[in-house]
Amino acid sequence: xxxxxxDRDTALAAxxxxxxxxDAPGLTVRRTRGRPKLAVLFSGxxxxxxxxxxxxxxxxxxxxxxxxxxxxxxxTLLDRPLRPLLLAEEGTAEAALLDRTGYAQPALFxxxxxxxxxxxxxGLAPDHVTGHSVGEITAAHVAGVFSLADACTLVAARGRLxxxxxxGGAMVSVEATEDEVAPLVAEHADRVSxxxxxxPSAVVVAGAADAVDTVAAHFxxxxxxxxxxxxxxxxxxxxxxxMLAEFRETVAGLSPQAxxxxxxxxxxxxxxxxxxxxxxxxxxxxxxxxxxxxxGVSWLAGHGTGVFLELGPDGTLSALTRACLDAAGHExxxxxxxxxxxxxxxxxxxxxAAGLYLHGVPxxxxxxxxxxxx
Length: 374
Fold this sequence. Notes:
alpha/beta; 4-stranded antiparallel sheet; 374 residues; 17 helices; Malonyl-Coenzyme A Acyl Carrier Protein, domain 2; 10 strands; single chain
């Protein structure tokens, strides 16, 4: 059993209900069957929001120290300090800057690394890590492939070079299978491509706006849902190609190592090899080719992963993961987001920690209280 409460009276009421075998707000009872395999997922661009991390920074000293360390590296690589953007109030000029690719990608990396260091301090030990697009850089860092300095160099260069490309292009999410979309994209292969396969019937198409609109119109006519994404550039498309050579040079100057944790690849949807993760070509292809997120979830679930923990500003990947799991008949597996944009951060993370515990993931609860005086 686990309960979360904001005050003494609520906690006592839940404990009383537990003793009586009754239900109560914040109380969950579940029978576990041993420790499940755990995968940690790191969110990608588009999930960023003003103020992300602010609540955790004031509540958890481990998070604050980790965030300060990452920002210390990133601030030497960017044209302005990242902290005012990351912790900005919604509606401010600083908050608007967070949507620029050159700041959004480093900001997400900083938040996600700090989140990982926090849950790691609670004893959380994943069996696999993965990410969505730029989130895989965070996965590679926490797995030991890139030092913090190298990972910061990589993510700062990636965001800067992408933002420097001419604006334009489009990205549209389509309710269709990859097999349905592929022939339409092939007709305009130099101008449009599949950017992501996020689920069995969830594909993102990216490239020149007119070519993307042609593909989207085909599915709209069939009564399928399509949605144009709010992006400055067409990521994972032919429009990325002018930045690839310079980006490859940046990666080639880094010193990647063999991972200490298995990293499930966006490029293949399976565990990446040492040769891939330490190759400049791999990370260059990672910019241009589709994000095979659904394949990664399928591989993880098929190899016994029972708990998926999303580390990022919201629950975007958790929703995609749930759809993939349900479609494949993995109803017993669970996807938990660390944070939710509509919930106080410390509350959301505490409820997620309780969910992890209820599903058999061991945690060192005494570390949760570090810095509280309790």
